[in-house]
Design a protein that fits this description.
By secondary structure, this protein is of the alpha/beta class. It has one domain (25-402): Aldolase class I (TIM Barrel), CATH 3.20.20.70. The chain is 45% helix and 11% strand. The protein has 18 helices and twelve strands. The strands form three sheets. Strands 4-11-10-9-8-7-6-5 form an eight-stranded parallel beta sheet. The chain has a two-stranded antiparallel ribbon with strand order 1-12. The termini are far apart. The relative contact order is 0.19. The mean pLDDT is 93. The structure holds flavin mononucleotide. Flavin mononucleotide is lined by residues 54-55, 106-109, 136, 138, 158, 186, 276, 298, 300-301, 303, 331-334, 352-356, 358.
Length: 411
Amino acid sequence: MVERRLPRPAEVFELMRFKRPDFDGRRRRLEAALTIADLRRIAKRRTPRAAFDYTDGAAEGEVSLARARRAFEEIEFHPDILRPATAVDTSTEILGGPAALPFGIAPTGFTRLMQTEGETAGAGAAGHAGIPFTLSTFGTTSIEHVRLANPEGRNWFQLYVMREREISYGLVERAARAGFDTLMFTVDTPISGARLRDTRNGFSIPPQLTPRTVLNAIPRPWWWFDFLTTPKLEFASLSATGGTVGDFIASAMDPTISYEDLDTIRDMWPGRLVVKGVQTVADATRLIDRGVDGIVLSNHGGRQLDRAPVPFHLLPRVVREVGRDATVMLDTGVMNGADIVASVALGARFALIGRAYLYGLMAGGREGVDRAIAILRSEIVRTMALLGVSSLEELEPRHVTQLRSLAPIDD
Ligand SMILES: Cc1cc2nc3c(=O)[nH]c(=O)nc-3n(C[C@H](O)[C@H](O)[C@H](O)COP(=O)(O)O)c2cc1C
């Protein structure tokens, strides 16, 4: 028999600890987001469909991106027990400078389209968190303004080599003058991948108002308010011609870029040089042998060649070939700090985040990017502590098994 008594008002009162209501909607929204997937849901609600899909989508059947995310889900961790790791140190050195966390912000084009604060929010948040920010050639904030948004921190510049070489070379010079310390040469974009969502949405640069976009705008008034009351969306360093992103890339990009271009850029650029978009062991080896300072294993977040190799799967083989001293970085599909911890354990020096940061941006501007970084940071710290390691150097391949639902057929 359970013994019963009358409830005592003082005890009930003690249970009633109501939080003071927070009237700052943005802060309330962001605090409720515990994962990057939560930020994505908020972003989707608040951003017009064409802009959200441009960010969220990938090429063709979007298989590369789904596989990359699945590869991270298939991580199995092996923790060390009875090894207390109370003070976890997440700092590292990358490309000759410090980073407070083992990841940085990847270059993304058209960023102010997603949310009007765009690159300023990304660069400011990166600087505040002590991680590098990468500005895209197709950025919507100028090189000089990014520097102003992140004056003390590290800025990197991503380069597309275009048909008109002089435009690209001019950007390289400006980035050097503005104190950017690393140049990231993207090589997986000879032509644009088929972003079918963009075509279906009739997405164009700059955005066009059609009856459908107007209808879609009704529940998203703040985005439109921001869009219409802030400086016109333009490439900060280039001039756009109109049409879809694919049309723009087709007119601007040179599909004949080669190792000669790499050598030319090497001669022009005073800082560190990284090649982004490496997808085979052979190319990784060739580039490291040629003396680049780092490589990024990436399939452009699944936005270029669909069904390209999953960078996380490629990682151990590349590291085995080029050695752990080479600077191997990776991106595509990172949605959780644990993905980054596993990558470091398997020999990556650093990761880049594209959509994870953009979901934060769309969910709440600068504070949203701060939130995305904070979520990833806490996941990294927690994963390391639970693995029983207190610094990134202690992470080893033995901490991770890559389970695979997809395995090559041996003949
Ligand atoms: C909206 C968007 C725009 C992008 N624009 C560029 C770009 O201009 N240059 C570039 O090198 N990569 C670009 N990328 C690729 C990212 O740098 C990065 O490789 C990719 O986002 C990583 O995958 P994740 O989004 O799953 O993190 C873009 C990615 C997205 C999502």
